[in-house]
Amino acid sequence: MKDIQGMPGTKGGLALRLSQFIFAVAALSVMASTSDFASVTAFTYLVVATSLQCLWSLCLAIVDIYALLVMRSLQNYRIVISFAVGDGIASTFTFAAACASAGITVLIDNDLNSCDDNHCLQFETATAMAFISCFSALTSFLLNFWSLASR
């Protein structure tokens, strides 16, 4: 397998992991800072999904940093398939949570017109950050999957 930027053990892969982590932490922090997120199941699911995304991205960022420091290639078939499966699962969970949160946010804002009573700006910000984190994980997944398919 060729070392393509964005693959495990490359600087591009590390950048994708760090962007996943930063946006997931931002979504988690913003949503957890509201006092009433636990009253809505979709918002609780967003907190759980972004927590999973944070852990996954941080662990793989540490592996990428180690691989870059010791100049080791992570293009082993088993490593790439585990990264691809993990990215696929994490991005699917985050995407589902972001979609559910977006639906509730639209319901609160447009249909119920009760943004004055709720934290709509925080809900919208957390949802947007979760979508961005999901799309970075999806990019990572697609690069790993393409690498496996082109073997």
TrEMBL record:
Compartments where located: Cell membrane
Keyword Transmembrane helix: yes
UniProt entry keywords in alphabetical sequence: Cell membrane, Membrane, Transmembrane, Transmembrane helix
Transmembrane segments: 42-67, 79-108, 128-149
GO CC annotation, single: plasma membrane
Membrane topology term: Multi-pass membrane protein
InterPro entries: CASP_dom, CASPL-5
Chain ranges of the Casparian strip membrane protein domain: 7-135
Description of how the protein assembles with itself and partners: Homodimer and heterodimers.
Sequence similarity: Belongs to the Casparian strip membrane proteins (CASP) family.
Official protein name in the record: CASP-like protein
Species, as recorded: Salix brachista
Source taxonomy: Eukaryota, Viridiplantae, Streptophyta, Embryophyta, Tracheophyta
